[in-house]
Amino acid sequence: MQMITRNDPHKHIMLSSFLNRVGALQNAVTKRATIFGIIYLVDIPGDSDIVLVDDPIAFWCARFIFKVPFPRLRIWAFELYEFQLPNNNFRNIVRNVFFGLATWSAFVFSGSVIFPSVGRAEFCIRRYLFARLQRKYRILPNIPVFSTPALNLPESVQFALTDLQKRGKIIVIYSGSIQTGRELSPIIAEFEQQDKYHLVLIGTLKGEYENFADRKFKSTSYLGNFDHSIVFRIYQEVSYGILCYSNTSRNTEICAPVKIWEYLHVGIKIIGNQNPALMGEWRGYIDAIYAPHAVVAALESAEGTPISAPAIPVFDVDFISEKWSNV
Fold first, then answer.
1. What are the backbone dihedrals phi and psi of residue 150, each rounded to the nearest 5 degrees, phi first?
2. Beta bridge partners of 3
3. Could you give the domains of the chain?
4. Which of 145, 246, 306, 316 sits at a 20 to 30 Å CA gap from 324?
5. What integer pLDDT is reported at residue 327 of this predicted model?
6. How far are the Cα atoms of 57, 83, 200 from residue 98, in angstroms, in the given order?
7. What are the Cα distances from residue 265, in Å, to 19, 142, 162?
8. What is the mean predicted confidence (pLDDT) over 294-300?
9. With pLDDT > 70 as the criterion, what percentage of the chain qualifies?
10. Angstrom distances, CA of residue 180 to CA of 3, 103, 200, 223
11. What pTM does this model have?
12. Count of Cβ atoms closer than 10 Å to residue 84 Cβ
């Protein structure tokens, strides 16, 4: 089979995990410049009749630039692209209308679709009614390949974590994109009002948080942005992992977290905000839900309880690379 994507397949967590699972991490990647930016093509093991794309623009590039027939195109729908940005200015409105039309038409003509959650599948079935998605979709949660922890941490990170432990702090981690839509500002403000817990953040700083590393806090630290082996080594030093998703956009309201599986894998307790998907589809994997301005109370409520350790679902790679009998 072939993958056609606008994402660098070695940098996207789920695409790189898929390549890893099918033994194609070292396969050659071809780049093609288009009016929509760089398109990446990778030949990978699987059914030769399937061409995998991961967004509506890649779908239409596959169809018109690379001449792939519609029935061969399988969409791995990582995001609700039409609902990523608010309709609060003309540019966003134009963007969202474009993605709405591109998504609807891609769903209509695609041969098959993979969704990362039941919630997103059900929403898309209702939203894109005439695409008849109920006849051609599967659910495959965003479960990555888990990295082997690095033997050693960067010196500055090791020093920071050791210092917190010596001072008796309970370390709580947020790992992921540090950006608008993650509802981090009120969490940081709450941590600054207490001394028992210390919040460490790792990941890419975006938007309003771009200069966050230069700011000084009493009970919050930004450690940096690291490769996965370092991230998994840091996980070994913490007690809780935070999941927080905004309810102001459908893309985050109906979240399909990657980090939930990483936290489960390393055995740290998971605290999530009052997000419909976290309180619904993913509730069985979360140790405590926190209300606005009550994350510390949720941490304290989870402190004396045994860790929730449900089994991580099996990631069935054949859902991606093989034909489905009823489609």
1. -65, 150
2. 42, 52
3. 2-143+316-321 (3.40.50), 155-303 (3.40.50.2000)
4. 145
5. 57
6. 10, 11, 38
7. 20, 13, 23
8. 95
9. 99
10. 30, 24, 17, 19
11. 0.93
12. 16
